[in-house]
Each structure stands twice: as structure tokens, then as C-alpha cells.
Here is the input.
Amino acid sequence: MIYIIDGYNVLHTRETDGMTKNQLEAKRHELVEETISFMASTGDEAYIIFDSSVSDSPVSHRIADTAVTVCFSSASESADILIGKLVQQKLAATKDEVRVVSGDWEVQKGALMKRVERIPPRNFLADMKKFAKGVAIHPEMGRMRWKIEDKVDVETLRKLEEMRRGRG
Here is the structure.
């Protein structure tokens, strides 16, 4: 399954009071991180598309070791157009189903085709929240090993301790 997410549309659905420019950057990063976790749990792939007025051409980068790609539209082409092109590209290139996450009517209208499911941002956010809640109350959560001491061998731990004390 491939998710194509209208990033600002999802953010504005969640943040109904508006955001400052500094908050927008933080919220965008938060959405990307939550999507990475969610995609890791489902085994699906995601493209998060944001509008941009800075670049002359669309820019995208895959987040290392994840199934998430973040894309920014160009100043001359909106994220909505980029989403439509990406849907067409993915349908032509794979047999996977595509899920388009957007509340924008133009985007949803463009996604009315076979193998494409339209998902309102509220539903997508609810699915991610349900996933996060499931992780938080998982029975193994209290026994998970989070500290570095639990993950490295004794010799490496000794060397790190020497470095910390200024002897290494």
C-alpha cells in the first residue's frame, strides 16, 4: 500500500487554531516522525507532500532507513498538482493500491479511480493516534530495553565510560 499525504492539509486538520512560522516547522517535523512510526508498523510506503514557494522545481528526499519520502512542490506547481502526478506515477509503476490522504476536494476528485482510496485527514490522524496508543500500552513496554548499557557489549561500555571520564 502506498500513502500519498497532503501534508499541510493534515496539519491544518489537526492544528485548527493556526500556527506561527516556527510552530509550522516543528509540526511538520512531528507529522513526518509520526508517519515514519506508523509506516514502520504497517509495512506501507508514504509520500508526504508540502507546498513550497521557494524552489523552482519540486524537491523530494527519502528519510534514511524508512519507507517515507518528504516532497516539496515548486513555486509554480502546487502540492495538489504534485499529488495528482504522483498518484498517476505510482499507479502506472506498481500494482499496489494507493491511499490519498487529503480533505481538499480537488485532490479527492482527482483520486477517483480504481486502486485509489480517498482518506480524510481526520481518519488518518485517528489511525495514527490509535497506533501510538497501542504502542504506549503494550504489555512489553515496561520490559523494553532503552538504555545504551542494554544494547552494547561490556568492552564498548567500558571504553565509553573511559571517554566520558576523560581518560580515553
Observations:
- Residues 2-137 form a domain with the Rossmann fold fold (CATH 3.40.50).
